[in-house]
């Protein structure tokens, strides 16, 4: 079995850029910076290392969320896949890059900023949001039964029952 999954938590390095492909599909692109911090054991000095990741969103719903709510500096959590591609730069030099890609029916994007964080126009009303897409459709903000408040959880069947009997029917496995 092979798995190609990337999870990043970082800050946008630039505003999302929207392009329309010849097929009519839209792709939203931006860069994300992830920074690792530590103290040098010998000197006690604080050190940082920042990695930059190119992100491309082909998922229509996630692209709309990124376009509407994400700005340079926004903190995000995202799940996607690594994809490598080659291109020729303007000087004719062959280049190879690896992008984090959120495919049409896969991927996740969570906004981690509090209200107005990373935004200048302040029209974002939420305290972060979760947007994901899997299978043939998308689910926005759906949580598992264990993440819900106790009053929202389904009561356990008498006599214990199987775990699958205790979960809501609307949650896919």
State the main characteristics.
about 170 residues, mainly beta, five-stranded mixed β-barrel, disordered C terminus
Please compute the radius of gyration using only Cα atoms: 20 Å
Mean pLDDT: 77
Give the count of helical stretches: 2
Inertia-based shape: globular
- Termini separation comes to 19 Å
Pick out the low-confidence regions.
116-127, 134-173
- The neighbouring-strand order within the major sheet is 1-3-4-6-5
Strand content: 35-45%
SSE string, helix = H, strand = E?
Answer: EEEEHEEEEEH
Q: State the helical fraction.
A: under 10%
Say how many strands there are. Answer: 9
- How would you sum up the major sheet? 5 strands, mixed, barrel
Oligomeric form? single chain
Describe the structure.
This protein is mainly β and 173 residues long. It contains two helices and nine strands, in the order ββββαβββββα. A five-stranded mixed β-barrel has the order 1-3-4-6-5. A hairpin with a 6-residue loop joins strand 3 (26-39) and strand 4. The chain is globular, with a radius of gyration of 20 Å. Mean pLDDT is 77; it is low at 116-127 and 134-173.
